[in-house]
Fold this sequence. Notes:
The chain is an alpha+beta fold and 587 residues long. Helix content is 27%, strand content 37%. The protein contains eight helices and 30 strands. A hairpin with a 5-residue loop joins β19 (241-247) and β20.
Amino acid sequence: MTEGLRTMLHGGWRQVALAVALCLVAVAAWADSVTVEVSARSVADDDEVRVTFNFSGAGQGSPPDLGADWTIAGQQQGTNVQIINGRMDRSTQVTYVLVPKRTGQLTIGSATITRGGQVVAQSEPIIVAVRGAVAIKPSDVQVQPSESVAFVTEIERDVVYVGEPFIVTGVLYVRAGARIQDAGRDEVVVPESVQREEVLAERLREDGERTFGGQRYARIVLFQEAWRVLRPETLTVPPLKGIIEQQGRSIFAERARIKSLPLTLEVKAVPSVGRPAGYREGAIGQFAVSSKLTPDQARSRAVFEVTIAGQGSLTTLDAPTLPPIAGANLEPLPSDEQDVSKATPEGVTGRRVFQWLVNPTRAGAVSIPPVEYVWFDPDTGTFASARTEAQQYDAAAGVAAAVKTTVDRNEPAPRDPLRPIETTVSIAEPTPPPYYRRLWFQLLIALPFLAWLIQGIVVRVRERAARRSPENRQKRAAAMALRRIDAAGKQPPAGQNPRVAFFAELGASLRGYLEDRYQLPALGLTNDALRRELTTRGHESDAVEALVTQLDACDFARFAPSGGSDDETAAARETARALIATLEKRP
């Protein structure tokens, strides 16, 4: 007997414990809670941090004040409401994209849930370490094999020279097997000492593959420009930023921010030690020099041409200095139309052409000595030069011809005999004007211009109307809301409860009024956020509280199991009209 009683009591306690546990689980299911998710706990000072606050329960969730340490770059909010056994449970997710204002240990404060003015749940504050971005040398840029996608800035050398054009490339490396659907970059803000020229013609360019740590990566060029620095300095190349769309776990593409590391670049002046006497400032690169002499025997003159072709600072090259020429004078000629300069992925390539007109001062041979051109080679860090071949032509025949022509021109020209003046008279019908002088042809010519002018006027009128659209909606906000309130519930959708349709339209009318009148994203704000916004704009707290209460009532009435009455809907309609009238009293 005693043993059986013990067994029964032991089993009874198990049943009681199980019942208590089930009750605790049921209570916890309805309890208010708030959780926080942060994309990173350690970031650079120009990185973005994505933080998500998850509020669940019947209480009102409020994110913390983020203005002290963070700049809000983006915000998104979603709400989910469930009705279980006549009880409403609401979960809200608020996501912020934050940019740190300074370096150091920055705090994301506690989010709270309140009921009746009392805090019933709150999250723990989160510390994010913000460090200054450390610039590295171009030669230290690496892609880690653990990265499926990497965005890097590539520059050929760690040292460049003042005035030297060099290529800056933003490359997206995608590991084999990773799927990128699209990619784009942000606008790059360069230092004021940098001149830039675009190289990449298309938006994206695939450029082969590379291997890092045994992993194959596709090389995709997102950014490519030719830069030229105008003064010696230690230049910091800012990080390149962009967005990629990649296939995630769901069927939809996921967007992600990408960023390269900043680079430090040493910009030096061309050395003065060991500089040849013939060096002209600005001649930097690798070049070849050639010359050509084209005589014009008919006028005894010639055109002497020097061409400098290669890769480097073509636009800043000066004309070579020519030695004196015995028996002739030189006159520079314009030759800009023959110059070619193009920024390519390999560098700035092309040619410069310099021309002189050779005017002989005597008959005989005219000789042009070799022309030497000196430049600085940035790859080797040394000066280089090239010398053209000597050119010569005989101006003796040309000079004689020129003298004979002058004598011939001094001889008097033969005169024609005098002839009587003849007048031709015709009595035929006047010849009609040509078609291009007729009115119909002139109107036809003007028709495209008139069509273009009319189209421009129409576009301007539409743009002006579009700019004034928010103003017009703001002026008509109250009238539009009152019309929607009067029409609420009178023609509910087929199969929908009239009371549910009425309160849904009533709540939408009030939120639509707030959006049109105050340019607020009312559909995306919590009621607490609306309360703060309207109070900040100078509305009385009683009116604001009445509006928030009415919105809560509309949300609850849409899911309440009771049927309600006509008196209740009429009272709600009049309350909404009175609220709009009260809000209209303040700007």
